[in-house]
Every structure is written in structure tokens, then in C-alpha cells.
Amino acid sequence: MDKINFTVNGEPISLSGSEVSPLTSLNDYLRNYLGLLGTKAMCHEGGCGACIVSVAKIHPGSNEKQIIAVNSCLVHVLSCHEWEITTIEGVGSRKNGYNPLQSRLASFNGTQCGYCTPGWIMNMYSLFEGSKKNLTTKQIERSFAGNICRCTGYRPILDAFKTFASDVEARNDIKDLEELDKLKCAKKCREDDNVGDDWCFIDHNNRNILDIKMDTNRWYKAFSVDDVFKVLTKEGTDNYSLVAGNTGKGVYPPTKESRVYIDISSISTLKDTFIDANLVLGAGLTLHETMAIFQRQMKNDDFSYLKQFHDHLELVANVPVKNIGTIGGNLAMKNSHPYFPSDVFVLFETVNATVTLEDLHLKTTEIHLPKFLKTSLKDQIILNVKIPPLSNSHLIRTYKIMARAQNTHAIVNAGFNFHVDKNQKILNSNIVYGSISPTYNHARNVENILKGQPLSSDETLRMALVKLQEDIVPLDDPSEPSPFCKKAIALALFYKAILSLSPSVNPRYASGGSELVRPLSSGIQSYETDKSLWPLNQPVPKLEALSQCSGEALYTCDNVSGPRDVHVAFVLSTICLGEIVQFDTTEVLKIPGVVAFLSAKDIPGTNSFIPKDEQFEEEILASKKISYHGQPIGLIAAISRKLAIKAAGLVKVSYKKYDTKPVLSITEALNAPDKQNRIREDVAIKATDKGNETTHTIKGHYYIPDQYHFTMETQSCRAELTRRGIRVWSATQWMDLVQIAVARSLDLPLNSVDVSVGRVGGAYGGKASRSALPACACALAAHALGRAATLVLPLTDNMHAVGKRQPARFEYELGVNNDGVIQHADIVYYSDCGYSYNDSSGSEIAVTMTNLYDTSRWNIKGYSVLTDKAGNTWCRAPATTEGTAIAEHLMERISHITKKDPIDIRKINIATKHNKVKDMIETFKMDTNYNDRRAEIEKYNATNAWKKKGLQLTIMSYPIVYYGNFSATISVYHADGTILMSHGGIEMGQGINTKAAQVCAYTLKVPLSMVTVKGSDNFVSPNSMASSGSITSEAVAFATVKACNELLKRLETVKEELDEPTWQEVVKAAYNKGFILFLF
User: Phi/psi at 760 (nearest 5 deg)?
Assistant: First the structure.
């Protein structure tokens, strides 16, 4: 058979190799071939969860049907043979009715920008459908590590989904509990007997190799290990890949295509598990299947240690990855990438597991894991892993230290296996570490010196730590924590293991050996509303909530492409400082499907995405000088996004590199030879008072690093030519800037550039000024080629080409008295702007730094600094974050040196004009039982050396400054009185459309259901300022009130002529009199 067959939302699909490439993902196929745009994508690494779909398939080992969530971005579409795939469109829709999961999430206000929402729904849908027993709240809460978004909707999401748990009481306001048994597809699966013989799912016990022929590649689906070797004998072993879950693509993306792919996910023998003396695990078992086996076998005394292994694997990857990622694939990745911090390897090596390999000549070999790492897997397949039974004289501990609680690789992971005699003397041991260096997996020297030593002896511990200190030499990798940090963690984990295994430990130190157990999250919200003001203050779901939950809310990247459309990708500089000498696109332009290469010389207008009245031009595409690594220097246009991205990486660029060392930090800028050109003073505030009671002097510095705008929708734009000029759909917070920048770059009048924004998939300030860069690039491609163009930045390009939060460094000296009152303060700060001053927050930091404190004794100087990095920009509360952070840091330093309660230090330094805040603090302390809780914490901390509790109460002010123009436009339709409105704000998850509609409905005294809001555009709302600064909703609401009042004024005379008319009657009468029912 040379086709694969599967269903999508019940519709059968038969796919041949001529229709796709071997690297076409299921996500690509769903979106670009089937037009199912509800399934999103962002990272393409299996980490964000936007791409999750549900899959029903037959398990090759048990022949039972299983339903799982998978990352569609990781799965090859050619791996989907005999799968039944359900996307968000198949779960529920406006046309077919919403699934209770969708309606429940909407009613709980569980969406923000909504881009991630289909992935949340699909993960929960798969969890519910695939569970063979009732779900608990714990199971639900711990199943969403693969949905990385943690916006305002996170707790409401969990609250919504937990209502489906078997161990929670029903809330009175939930109307659809009776629908719990209806969590099925909105559409029935097709029952069509005329699909063709190829479609029928054949006998799973009688399978033939599937052979899919492509232009230059071959895809095989094997059903036995013999099948694999038959293919290798036929095709050769020079260039092939074995494919199971393909989750490794998210860690190490393939750099080139293989000639031959062999799908081994349906080989039943690789799913085998049994116990002879050892527990034998088929290499094709997924991580989730392995965990289930561990959970069953841990009841066996010889395998009781599997409880720790199971709990450790809970910390590995996420649900969709564990659903298809295999233990054999994980070990194979460790084999080819020795520095990969494989938890599977650490666990198995801790107990001296072995791996069984079979080669092309059908010879099997059983080897231990250290030897496995040095063995070439060419011509071989991993059959199974054997883990031994161990008596209770084997004391085992495993650990994983991570940067966050879920879904991330280990900073350091470790396994300890101490085999002890009846006197607790160590007979032998296994001390295994991961993520130290590519070659360091075992602490062999320590294992040797521990033989014969008592496990719980202080001398044993000291001796082992000294030897570990000598032996552990972590790799110095700039992308990871420092070697010092890793070594400290490795030593601490050994100490932790010893503590946990010692029978008698000083109670003060005992907590260091125990694990932190994360409790289930919980929270209570209570509020009252004045119903006389409804719908103005009525708690209602957002207008877009259901469309977000059903995947019907479209974003810039969802604009449907036409047959002549092109996709655009940036060519980024691979050096930091230098000049472009020449582009060589000869070979790239020969690739079928690559349409064009564009550079700065193709820009007809000004090569800048910044308005001309700004102080610093920023080029769209570098014309000659390279200012930072990752700067856009060219564009590739191709017939698909994947091809454009690939081709952009193949453009050859010749550079003239400068000898100058790049300046990459504030510290380097302050010490640079050209620092006079890099440092600009923004503000200098002199103290107006000085105290004379200084008893303590505090000096120090404080640093806030940069921060990536982790929006689920990356920078995106679509552009197409119109008769008047060009239309641009931009994922922007600032339509006006995009319009100006595009017009300027294309040398067009502003009235020729139409800008529309339906919604934005997250912004945080990163899509204010910076969104003009991709908009200009995309518009350039459309203008130069005469074809509609779409530009959606890959995650990596988004990180390289676009700036982040501006890092800030503070240096300070304080004088305080014994009560903690500041007598004098000298504070100097520097803000890292990247290579452009345009978005500097330098002067604003000085304003927000004061917070609510008396700063009359503060001397403040602020500087902006240029570095050789992308132009940094505003990010979620810019300046306020930095200013508040340093102010509160200073209060903590004062508290520490004076040994006084941090709250008392804050109160005593609050400015007189803010004295009411002191009363608010005391009320808040009483409401939260602060004093009693503090006393309990102090008692706990005094008796626990290694674990500490804390309680923080802080104060913060946020300066509200109203600026810019925000219009509201209202259209009333005479036939039924319904209202359509638009405004100059941008909907990016904050619910601005819903707020505007509520204000409109309240002011006009009509039901909220009569008001809808359309997306923003620069014709209806020209000259609008950026939606930022936490003022846009209020500004739009104010504009809405003005427009509504003007309308009411216009209708007043008509209303007076009628006898207690309805809204519809007033509108109809006004229309008949020729009144204009359009207001702005």
C-alpha cells in the first residue's frame, strides 16, 4: 500500500507521498492543506501546547483503542496511518454547538488573548475521553505542563476544568453538569461504506510494510523488527532515520532530511513488557506507558524503588510529549547527544539497567548504559531495557533540579543507589549525574572511596563531598547556569540523599532530606456588583470567549492564503559587528518554490520602520552596517512558510567583520573605549533635604535582566496590494505607527495604506514599536512581487531580531537611622536600550522609583546605554517594574541591617501625602492574619536549617498618564436596532471589546446582546495611539460614552414624539426622518 489513511473530525483522508514531504507535520497539514485554522502553533518544539490535537488509535501491543493528546507540530503527518484525529473544530463550534468543555471555560473567563485556548481545550478533551476512570482534581491540575501559557486566565482555566473532576462539589452556577456524558465530537464520525478498500483498518495481526514513495525520499511503516531490517537491506544504511514519537525534534531539530524514514511506532514487540528475573521494558514504550508499568510494579517488593522512578518521570516533559515519546528514543538521543540531560538515562543507570540491541544481521547484544553511550546505533535497533529487582538493602534516591516546576530540562539531575549491609556500611554504590558535561555521568572516584564506609557518618559525608568537589567539572555553557552553580547543586543533591537516608538526623537539618510537595492550587474570589448599573459592571464572559474556545477566533497568521500568495522569512545576520559585502543567492533561488530574495536596495522609500521625527533611524533591512547579531539583512519569499524559513538559512552572505569586540552588557558599555558615545544622561534629581542621624550605611548594586516577550503569537503580518495602495493586517498594538512606517518605506501617502487588526495573540509591549519591523518587511514583499505576502516570525527569529525588556543596573548608597528612616540616598541607574535609544525608559524609571516613599533625601541619576544588541523595548509595566523593584529592594536591605519588620520599614518611609496607605496596610494585615502567620513562619524557620518559609507584603504605585487619541465609532441599524461599534484600541486579551460594549449598552439603555464590536482599523479609527500603559480600556470607554451621548442627544427629539417607545421604535423613527445613525 502506498498511501496512508486516517480521519480528521470523522472525515476520511487518503494521503500519498506526492502530496507532502517527509517533514510535513500534522500541524502543517491541518492548517495549510485542510484549512483547519483552529489548531495553532508557536514554538514548533512541543513546548507551548498551542498545537495540541486529540488522537484515537489502536495500541500495537494491546490492540486496544487509546485516546491521547499529541503535539501536532512534532508528529509527521505520514505517521498518522489509521489514526482518528480530532481538532478543536471537531469538538464544538458555533454551527454545531459547543462542547461543555468549551462553554464551561468561556463562562469561567478562562481565556485572555485566546491563542493558546484551543490547545488547552484539546488537552482536557483528550484527558477526559482517554481516561478509563473518573478524573480527580489532582490528575487534572498536573496534566497541563504542556500548555505553557500562564496568563491571567490560568487559575480560571483550572477552576473550569476541575468542575469535571469526580472529587469536587458542583457549583450552583454551572448549568451544564447534565452534559458531562456529552464530551464527544460535535460532528458524528462518518459511517460511509464507500470509502474504498484502502481505507478499511486491516487485521492488526497481519500487516505488510507500508511504502510511501516521494520525489527524493522514501517513507516506510514497519510492523515488525524484521520489517526494519528488510528496509535497511533494501535501501542501505547510509542515510536513514527511525521514527517513533519524533519528540526529539523539539530538542534537536533536524538539520537535513534523511533519504529514508522508517516509522517503528506500530511494532508490537517494541511495546512488550514482562518480568523474567528483570523487568523488561520494550524500547517502544512511551514515557506514559512506562509510568503506568512502574505504578503497577512498585507494589512488588523487588521493584518498590519504581515509586521514585514514577514520581521522577512526572517531572519529565509534558503530557503530549510523554504520550508518544519513547524510552528507546530518549536513550537514542542521549547516545547521539551526550550532553542531553536524559532523566531516563539517569534513572536506568542508577540501578545498572541494560539495553538490548539487535543489528542488521539479527544478532542481539545486551550492554550496560555507559557502553551504550559509546556504541554506534547505525544498523541497530534498541529492542528493550532491562531493569533489575533490588532488595531493600539498596537505598535509592533520584532528583531533578529545574528552572521551573514543570516541562523543562534538568539544570542537574542525579540518581543515588547505595547498597548497604545490615550495619548500614556501603557495599557498593551508583552515583549518577546528568547535565554536568558530555562525558561525566558517574562519580566513579566517589563510588570507590565509599566502599566499606558507614552511610550516615559525618566523616563519610565529608570525604565524599571533598572528592566530588574535585571531580565534578561542569561544562561552561553560556546558555545554562554557571559551572559554579551546577557544581553546588550536584554537591547539595548528594548531601540531600545522605540526609534522607540517615536514620537519626538532628531535627533542625532533617527537612533538607525531604522533598517539597506542591499542594493543589486553590483560590477564592468574591465580589459584589450594583445590579442597578448592569450591564456596565455586570460579570459577563468576554464577547470573544466562545469563539476563542472553539478555535473560530482568527489571528493574523490565520489569514487564508491564495494560490499566488508568498510566505516571507527574514535572513538574519550571523555576525555582530561589521558590514555586508555581498549576497550569494544563486543556489537558493534554484530551489523549487523559492520566489525571490529582497534586500535593502529593493526598498522604494526610506529604509526605516521608525517615524522620521524619532531621534534614531532603525533599518528594516541592514543596508551595509551590521549593528547586532540576528539583525534582519534580507528577505526570502517562497510558496510556503517552512520553505521560506529553510531557504533564508541557506542564503550565503559575505561580511567584513570589525575588529571591535561587541559590547553586550551595561558593565561592558561603562568600560568601553567609546563609552562617551554610548551613555546618555536622562535625568538628574537632587535631594532637597538630608538627615543627620545616620547610624547605618548601605551600599550595593541591583540588576534586572532582559526579558523576552513570550507571546503565544509571534510577530506577524499579512499584506496585499489594493487599487489605492496596500492593505496590511498586523499583529500590532499600534496601528498608527505601522501605517506611518509602511507608507514611509514604500514611499506612499498615508491614505494609501490600510491597517487592520482583528485581535492580537499576546503583546506585553513587544508589539508596540517593534511590530512595525515585520509589517514593513511584509509590505515590501507584497509591493515588490505584486503578490499577497505573509510573515510569521519563527520563535528563534522572534528572539534574535526583536529586542526585549531593557536590562537595568542600579548602584546605590544609603544612610539610615536605627529606626530605618532614610537619611540620604544616592542612586545611579543605567538602562540598556540595545543599539537604539528609541524606546528608552530611562527617565520614567526615576519617576516610578519613588513609589509611595518620601524621596526628598534621594539623589537620583538615570542614564540610557547603547549596546550591540537588538533595540530593546517596552515590556509589561516598563519603568514601573524596574523602579518599583529597586525601591522595594532598598527597603528589604534596610530591614535586614536594622533587624526590623520590612512592613514597618516601608511604613516609616512612606511620604506624608500617602499616609492613608499606612492605615490600608494595617487593615490588610488584620484581614490576612499577618502577625500570627509571621509568628508561625519565624518558629518554623528557627527549627529548620534547610527549608524556609516566607511571607511578603509590599506596596506599589502605578502612575496613570492619559495620552493619545482613541476614538469610538457606533453604527445603529434601523431594521432591528442592533449596534455595531469599533474603536481605536487593540483587543489583545484584556477584554477591551467587552468593556466598550458594556459601556455602550449601559449608556444607550439597551441589552448587551444588541451590541457587537468589530476589529480595529485605521480608517474608522485614524491616528490612534498605542494600546499600552493600562489606559486604553478607559480611554475607549470614555470615547464610547461621548459617542453614545451624542447619539442620544440626536435621538431625543424623536423620542419625545413617541409614547414610551422601545429602542427599536426610536431608531426606526429616526431613520425614517433621515437621521444619521452613525456616531464617532
Answer: -120, 135
